[in-house]
Design brief:
Layout (H helix, E strand, L loop, with lengths): L19 H6 L5 H39 L8 H22 L7 H20 L5 H15 L4 H22 L4 H53 L2 H9 L5 E14 L2 H6 L3 H22 L2 E6 L2 E6 L8 H16 L12 E15 L5 E5 L1 H11 L6 E3 L1 H7 L6 E7 L3 E8 L17
Parallel strand pairs: 4-6
Antiparallel strand pairs: 1-3, 1-4, 2-3, 4-5, 6-8, 7-8
Length: 439
């Protein structure tokens, strides 16, 4: 419900057919949507408005010269200034309004004023002509269709100008009704056709506006979904090109994290509770990755993989990754298994050259390849619960920031390897961490 008590429809649930009645009525019930349509329609009509003003100048300026040099109606004659005030000045003012971003909202109102102003002058001339009604219908067609007036604007212009024409003919010029009967009937019939044309033009404009608005909303949702799968620079490249996306980075830092003792503990939980618990944990890690400017790569079961220094290179990727690893250890300690035992992570980090790319055409993924990723995984799998284990390459970049414990492990394919352990201070984590609950 909005502040006035009116029912507000959820934007994400709207369909084009939901607006069909409003489109037929030429008015959206939501004032925000109605205002957006009017602003959009005004902006899209600016080219037509400019054409009308230039046409007005193109007609009035030569006539002014004709008055001045042929009919000798110069500046000393009031008719000269009247033509200037009616024909030239409003057109110039309209062109200036069309160039102003602040005044664009008032252009539809001004164009109605302009059409009526010129129409008043022309009707005053047409009324004395034996075919005045024919000239008026020509003007109405040109003015209403060229400016793409909305249906209400068309109705206003027609009522005012036809009424003014009838008043001048019957009252001022005292013409007999019989002499105008056929002309006024034809004028009224054509005015009805012009009004229907104005209705159809606005009806189509409203449907187009609505469809484009809903299409834009769907595009935003698709964009958010794509950005949940791929890093933003990679998603942009994928949209611009259908070719293979593969990059080589001379140096990046990769982190693997795995929840300790997850298999037996998850086996004791229902599927809904297990999935919700992992979702809460990994969502917290996602927020940490965003905070530290790192790129989440994927989750593998109860494992989490994140990279720094790609797809956009940064010089402090190792420092940012270690800072995130510490925050991850702090975050995981806030969660507990159903037994009440606090959760913990094994974390492994390595720094080195990496190949990254998008693999597959269905359910594709942005993944990392190479020895650096393999060794980072070994750092995790050979790690210690609650600690962060890193290679010499990462240690060399952060050694001055933290205190480490050196150890050696036997890494498959590498042999005995020196590694470095960083254990965070978790003394500030409360004992009353939340337990997973049934959903």
């Amino acid at each position: 419900m909005d502040e006035g008590g009116a029912k507000v429809r959820p934007a994400e649930d709207l369909l084009p057919e939901d607006f069909e009645r409003e489109v037929r009525r030429l008015r959206f019930e939501d004032p925000v949507v109605e205002r957006a349509f009017q602003d959009d329609y005004s902006r899209r009509r600016i080219p037509q408005f400019r054409v009308i003003f230039w046409v007005g100048l193109g007609i009035q300026i030569p006539l002014s010269f004709r008055f001045a040099f042929i009919e000798e109606i110069g500046p000393d004659d009031p008719r000269f200034w009247l033509r200037l005030a009616v024909g030239v000045i409003p057109a110039v003012a309209g062109l200036l309004l069309a160039r102003s971003t602040r005044a664009v909202r008032w252009l539809p109102v001004y164009i109605v004023f302009y059409v009526l102003l010129i129409g008043f002058v022309l009707v005053s001339i047409f009324a004395t002509s034996p075919i005045g009604w024919t000239s008026l219908t020509t003007y109405l067609i040109a003015a209403c269709v060229m400016s793409r007036l909305r249906a209400r604007e068309v109705a206003l212009v027609e009522i005012v100008l036809i009424g003014w024409f009838a008043f001048l003919s019957l009252v001022v010029l005292d013409k007999p009704l019989a002499s105008l009967d056929a002309g006024l009937f034809s004028l009224g019939t054509l005015a009805l056709f012009i009004l229907v044309a104005g209705y159809l033009i606005e009806h189509s404009a409203r449907r187009d506006f609505l469809l484009l608005r809903l299409l834009g909303r769907e595009r935003e949702r698709s964009e958010r979904l794509l950005l949940n799968v791929l890093p933003a620079p990679i998603a942009q490249r994928l949209k611009e090109s259908s070719g293979t996306i593969a990059d080589s980075f001379s140096e990046a830092t990769i982190l693997f994290a795995d929840i300790t003792d997850s298999t037996p503990n998850i086996a004791r939980m229902s599927a809904e509770v297990a999935v919700q618990l992992l979702n809460d944990i990994f969502s917290a890690f996602d927020r940490l990755a965003d905070r530290h400017g790192l790129e989440k790569i994927k989750t593998i079961g109860d494992g989490y993989m994140v990279a720094g220094g790609l797809p956009e290179p940064r010089p402090d990727h190792a420092e940012a990754m270690v800072a995130m690893a510490l925050d991850m250890q702090t975050e995981i300690a806030r969660f507990r298994w159903p037994t009440g035992k606090p959760m913990s992570l094994r974390v492994g980090i390595n720094t080195g050259p990496v190949v990254a790319g998008v693999i597959g055409t269905r359910r594709f993924i942005y993944d990392l390849y190479g020895d650096t990723a393999n060794v980072a995984k070994r750092m995790e799998s050979h790690g210690i619960s609650g600690a962060i284990q890193m290679t010499q390459a990462t240690y060399d970049r952060v050694r001055d920031r933290y205190s480490f414990t050196e150890r050696t492990i036997d890494v498959r394919g590498k042999g005995v390897t020196a590694t470095y352990l960083l254990v965070p201070d978790l003394s500030r984590i409360p004992d009353e961490a939340p337990l997973p609950t049934e959903i």
